[in-house]
Amino acid sequence: MSILEVEHIQKSFERTEVLKDISFSLEKGQVLSIIGSSGSGKTTLLRCLNFLERPDSGIIRVNGETLFDPDAPFSRSEAEIRKKRLHFGLVFQSFNLFPQYTALQNVMLAKELLAKEQPDYKTRKKEIHQEIEAQAASLLKQMGLADRMQNYPHQLSGGQCQRVAIARALALQPDILCFDEPTSALDPELTGEVLKVIKELADKKTTMIIVTHEMAFARDVADHVIFMDDGCILEQGDPIQVMEHPKEERTKQFLARFTQG
Fold this sequence. Notes:
alpha/beta, Rossmann fold, six-stranded mixed beta sheet, 39% helix, globular
């Protein structure tokens, strides 16, 4: 069974149709790369999966559980939406760290907020805090930031901030880790740092969806590639098929930009 099934997702903003009949599936442990021009709907798709936007129609299932189906009753309460979001960890292109918190506190924050909803939180507060802190510290060490845990975002490089953001996304142990152009705000050296971390996660069979303009990375790391254009999936398949032997003229034109010269 696929870990993620997306069927016929559509999304419009006023009169602009941004997603048009999007369908795909993802197996556990696989990496899906989504490529395409700016404005093709890639980021909106991730935001719909993470319930930062509500699709107009379609179905989203994770591990066989229907998270979104407009024809079935489902709660729009903030508590219910938070539950749905726990299936996905989202890493934004501009980090979105809280500037008033250290790297360690940024990674701990979401789990601490969820812990407060547990019935035994008041009686186990200290123990729970220590557990969350230990897990956050372990994740930051995994990201190569053992000596930066007490630094604030303004004391970190862009690559370090993005690695903190990845640790934060992993903290809630999501089923699927999603990246929205994670290197677009970074210079080439820092881009390499972040891509190395993502490659290590792929090697550990972390299920991931990566929106990226790093074509070589998408080809080398992904198990499946989707090319989006004008809100549609124009072509999809394994990386060699889509990126080296594309069938659609629009896919060929897009990829040609990265091979010229």
